[in-house]
Amino acid sequence: MRVINYEQLKSVLAQQTEWPRIVASGNFAPPMTLLRAADETIENFNLHMLNAHPGIPDREGVDYESAFVGPAMRRHPRLHYIPSRLSMVPILFRDHYRPDIVFLHTSPRRYDTVSLGVEVNILPAAIEAARARNGIVIAQANKQMPYTYGDAQIYESEIDYLIEVDEPLLEKPVAEITDTQREIGDRIAALIE
Q1: Coil, helix or strand for 156?
Q2: For position 187, which CATH number holds?
Q3: H or E element: which one contains 94?
Q4: Given 3-state DSSP classes, what are the helix, strand and coil percentages for the chain, each rounded to the nearest 5?
Q5: Which domain holds residue 84?
Q6: 20 to 30 Å CA-CA from 38: which of 45, 105, 125, 192?
Q7: How far apart, in Å, do the first and last CA atoms of the chain sit?
Q8: How far apart (Å, rounded) are the C-alpha atoms in residues 45 and 62?
Q9: Long-range contacts made by residues 51-55, C-beta under 8 angstroms, separation at least 24?
């Protein structure tokens, strides 16, 4: 694994194949620094994310793929929806939707490992599929990403490049409760002894 800065990251991305498939952490752990670098550097690419939130690259030349569509991709004209159970996604990565690049949002290094933190999901399968076809794995190591264990732990040897960042994780905004929702809640609460 090689630790690089933002300009070096853009140089690495500029050397990639035409229309690479990028698999990135989704949900509340998108690697925004890596996605921004790809958006600035790669003219055309496929972006595969689960439950992507607003703020991801959105322009001509960026096509979306997902088995679980989030708010940033929902009803998007360049979305290729893959109707599949999440348990099938590793097979799809291996046989059909082979990743050229995997973007990870990780914790800082701890000894010879990093952690995928709050988002593991399909990423181990994406890493394995990329490694099998000489793809690259790039991690964004964030001081604010917690170190979690189990399948979230990956060895530095599984990562080609790492860029260190310090940025807040996404948070689900608190929704305002409507009068109707409050009334429903009050009626249900009254039924509970």
Answers
A1: helix
A2: 3.40.1080.10
A3: helix 89-95
A4: 30, 20, 50
A5: 2-191
A6: 125
A7: 59
A8: 5
A9: 51/26, 51/27, 52/26, 53/26, 53/27, 53/28, 53/170, 55/30
How far CA 93 is from CA of 22, 23, 102, 126, 180, in Å, comes to: 11, 10, 11, 6, 44
Closest CA to 160 of 127, 116, 126: 127
Q: Model confidence over 99-128: pLDDT tens digits?
A: 999 999 999 999 999 999 999 999 999 999
What tokens does 185 get?
Answer: 């809640």
Q: How far is CA 13 from CA 7, 110, 141, 159, in A?
A: 10, 26, 17, 15
Comparing CA positions, the residue from 37, 44, 45 lying closest to residue 65 is: 45
Which H or E run includes 162? strand 161-165
The reported pTM is 0.89
Structurally, the chain folds into a number of domains equal to 1
Closest C-alpha to 49, from 34, 33, 69 = 69
So what's the pLDDT on residue 74? 86
Q: At what angle do helices 32-41 and 6-14 cross, to 10 degrees?
A: 50
Tell me 110's DSSP state. B
Contacts of 52 (CB under 8 A, 6+ apart): 26, 30, 64, 66, 69, 70, 71, 72, 73
How many DSSP H helices and E strands does the chain contain? 5, 10
For the segment 41-56, what is each residue's pLDDT rounded down to a tens digit? 999 999 999 988 888 9
Beta-carbon contacts of 126 under 8 Å, excluding residues fewer than 6 positions away, are 23, 48, 93, 99, 102
